[in-house]
Amino acid sequence: LTVIELNKKSFVVFREKSDGTIDIKPISYYQTEPDAFTAKSLAWNVIRYIKTAGTDNADVMFTEASRLMTPSLKENFKSFIENEKFQLSRLNKQNIGIYRVLENVTVKMLEKEDLPPNSQFEPSPYDVVVSGTVRIFFKNNNNEAAPAENFHYHVSMTPLEGRTEANPWGLLVSSIQPIEPEKSLKRLKEIEEEKAKSNDKTLIEKVLTPANKGPSN
Predict the structure, then answer these.
(1) CA 116 to CA 114: how far, in whole Å?
(2) Residue 104, Cβ neighbours under 10 Å: how many?
(3) Burial classification of residue 178, based on how many CB atoms lie within 10 Å of its CB (0-12 exposed, 13-18 middle, 19 or more buried)
(4) How far, rounded to the nearest angstrom, does the alpha carbon of residue 117 sit from its chain's CA centroid?
(5) How far is CA 43 from CA 36, 37, 52, 163, in A?
(6) What domains, with CATH codes, occur in the chain?
(7) How far apart are CA 145 and CA 140, in angstroms?
(8) What domain of life (predicted)?
């Protein structure tokens, strides 16, 4: 069994120390490679920081998000951050304060069916999908909310050599890409199933509908 498999079974490790006492720790204490829970946790955090940036907390949110990224992604992310900060500063100058709230969030491991039918990408244990809706609230207008917007992101991560206090996940985000569920292999299969059911219903209706009879003599 791997360390991750042992962890799922809630095993503990008994270790005799030099002074004769017994040290007992869960197997997760010795886990070095990130598991699915860890990957999903990091993916959720980086998206949460990015999507909840508002006029009062943008600097903090973007700093925290950047801290979880690889150097290359952090560099590519700079233009997005600068643009977002510029837009938020314009709102501040107009005394318009906003904050964002995430709703109906789901975090799952990426599956092949989440990708377009022709995609050659092979999901790994470090690929996660974060989906949900974001609502923008205007502070100066009785917290009036703008229409909710859906979001779906494929978050890819790369493992580090180990965990640290600064990075307890042992991972860094290497890519954040929007995905379109309506174009996924899963949705394509659902559409085909819906069509099949529709055809079956039409066939049943034809069988149950009495045939038109000619005039009786």
Answers:
(1) 7
(2) 10
(3) exposed
(4) 20
(5) 11, 10, 14, 16
(6) 34-112+125-179 (3.10.450.230)
(7) 11
(8) Bacteria
